[in-house]
Amino acid sequence: MPELVAQGALMTCTMGLGPPAPLTVTPRPPMLQVGGLPGATIADAVPMANIPSFGMCNSTLNPAVIAATSAALGLHTPAPCVPVPAGGWVPGSPKVSIGGVPALSSTCTCQCAWQGTISFTSAGQVKVTG
Predict the structure, then answer these.
(1) Is the C or the N end of the chain the one with fewer CB within 10 Å?
(2) What percent of the chain is helix, strand and coil (3-state, nearest 5)?
(3) Distances (CA, A) of 12 to 29, 77, 97
(4) What structural domains does the chain harbor?
(5) Is the pTM of this model over 0.85?
């Protein structure tokens, strides 16, 4: 079973040029603790609130990249990333829910309207060995 995702899990976007970015979990009751941190659900897909910028966007479908490329006389030019999730996280955990909403697992992905796929590089759980 994949790990459940917690506050601070790291994500990347296939069109982003920046380092992995942390997920911010929306506070909601009841809050399931995952490894001592707030657990995420498939509803945690709000741009800039839950999903931050991935630095610069490299997608040729992004209007900002199109404008920057046009201004550079046709030389492909990345532009600042502002994620635009198209839908939400899929598929969600089939066995765990938080407040009736499927929990987010480390294998979930989210499509960006500008062609990128957002995925997790770390579930955010801290492993402690004793």
Answers:
(1) C
(2) 5, 30, 65
(3) 28, 20, 24
(4) 1-55+81-130 (2.60.200)
(5) yes
Q: What is the Cα–Cα distance from 66 to 91, expressed in whole angstroms?
A: 31
How many whole angstroms separate alpha carbon 42 and alpha carbon 50? Answer: 11
Label residue 58 by pLDDT band (50, 70, 90): very high
Distance between CA atoms of 103 and 37, rounded to whole angstroms? 13
What are the tokens at 70? 């046009």
Convert 48-72 to b/e letters by CB count within 10 Å (16 or more is b). eebbbbbebbbbeebebbeebbeee
Give the three-state DSSP class for 21: strand
Give pLDDT tens digits for 67-86.
999 999 999 999 999 999 99
Query: What tokens does 45 get?
Result: 């897909």
Rounded Cα gap, residues 89 and 118, in angstroms: 9
* Owner of token pair 């603790």: 33
Tell me which residue of 32, 27, 26 sits closest to 88, measured CA to CA.
26
